[in-house]
Amino acid sequence: MVETSLHIDQTTELAETFGLLADPTRLSIVVACMDQECSAGEIAEKLGSSPSLTSHHLRLLRSARILKSERRGKQIFYTMADDCVRSVLEIMIEHIFTHGHDPLDDSE
Which of 24, 79, 81, 93 could form a disulfide with 37 if both were Cys (CB 3.0 to 4.6 A apart)? Predict the structure, then answer.
């Protein structure tokens, strides 16, 4: 069984990680990189976002070790760096979209 009691520093770090993923643009970037590597340009194009804004989000995700990067020539490619984050996202995607869970329905 996993210990669920957290020290305040651990709670803060966990909240910061969820905060990074709470931004729709950053979450979209992470989801795009879950199953395939993507160049920064491909990510910006998929999101309809400027390259500079996309690069800003990528820097944050890389510094949090959620994504990792690899330079090839002039391009940088991004992939998931954290299998735990991948697993949490896969579980949440399945929970919300596969099981018909409506997060806005509070009738339960």
Answer: 79
